[in-house]
Design brief:
Blueprint (H helix, E strand, L loop, with lengths): L1 H4 L5 E7 L6 H10 L6 E7 L5 H9 L4 E5 L3 H5 L1 H10 L4 E3 L2 H5 L4 E5 L1 H16 L15 E6 H6 L6 H6 L2 E3 L1
Parallel strand pairs: 1-2, 1-3, 3-4, 4-5, 6-7
Antiparallel strand pairs: 5-6
Length: about 170
């Protein structure tokens, strides 16, 4: 998606919380796709909010860079800082949730948190009706949303392809 909206990008930093090894799976998935779109991937792990600015600034100094943010409690609680830094360094960035885009981020693609709450409510109902939590299956997200901020795209000098705008659940003007 980042290549569709910013075709010049040839390097992508994946910003992730470094204190949880499970987040490395995100990088593996992105690295598997990267050769198909001619992008070099660099994992940029941060352990706390104070490491976010230096991590983004170090990577942003290189030409044709972009950013992918992996969801975590740290990155989500720092969404305002992350989107502000991406704008300051003129980095096209893909985020995991809509809240980043409403804070000025470029594009978000990820599970719809509202749908998670609906799923959780059905689990609560089942538990209150007597089912054992251990017997309930693990569910994966079923609804994903695409949100694009056209104002940010314009500020970055990017033309968002019409087909992406048409696919979007929301386009913020």
């Amino acid at each position: 998606m980042i290549k569709e909206i910013a075709p010049h990008v040839s390097r992508v930093a994946v910003l992730l919380y470094s204190k949880n090894a499970a987040y490395a799976r995100y990088v593996q998935g992105i690295e598997a796709t990267a050769p198909q779109v001619a992008v070099k991937v660099t994992a940029s792990g941060v352990g706390d909010a104070s490491e976010i600015e230096p991590a983004i600034a170090a990577f942003a100094g290189q030409a044709n860079s972009g950013l992918i943010v992996v969801p975590s409690p740290l990155t989500n609680s720092s969404h305002g800082l992350i989107t502000e830094l991406a704008a300051r360094h003129r980095l096209p960035a893909v985020y995991p949730y809509r809240l980043y885009v409403t804070s000025g981020g470029l594009i978000a693609y990820g599970p719809d948190p509202t749908d998670w709450y609906r799923q959780a409510a059905s689990y609560v109902d089942r538990i209150l009706r007597g089912e054992k939590p251990a017997d309930l299956p693990v569910q994966q997200p079923t609804k994903f949303e695409l949100v694009i901020n056209m104002k940010t795209a314009k500020a970055l000098g990017l033309d968002v392809p019409v087909h992406l705008q048409q696919l979007a659940d929301e386009v913020i003007e």
